[in-house]
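In response to reviewer comment 3 from the previous cycle, which asked for concrete evidence that the modeling workflow produces usable outputs, we include below a single protein chain processed end to end. The sequence was submitted unchanged, and the resulting structure tokens are shown without manual editing.
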Amino acid sequence: MRLMLVLMVLAGGIARAQAREVRQWQYSAAFLSAASVADSVSSWHQPEVNPILGSRFEVKSVLIKSVIVGGALGVEWILVRRHPETRRAFTVTNWIAGAGTLGIAGRNWRMR
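The workflow returned the following structure tokens.
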């Protein structure tokens, strides 16, 4: 009986830890998305350096950028579901990429 109680407590702790990791990945994905939106707003109607997005940042550029970020997060979501051990790496990657993108957005605002 004690063993069963101990196993139930441990299982609950593991489930909470996994749920926490899932939330952390979700927060990092939301941060990356928000940073991308901030970068898009700060780049609006400005000359664009990235040739994939065109010469000026307009509607077409926003659509391309949204597809790139959304596609990357979609692939992450699939990989995280199939291989939960990748969750931590993607979480860190999203935070770093989001911070870099937010830094670029800040530079864009200062350049205006």
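The mean pLDDT is 89. We consider this sufficient to address the reviewer's concern, and the full set will be provided in the supplementary archive.
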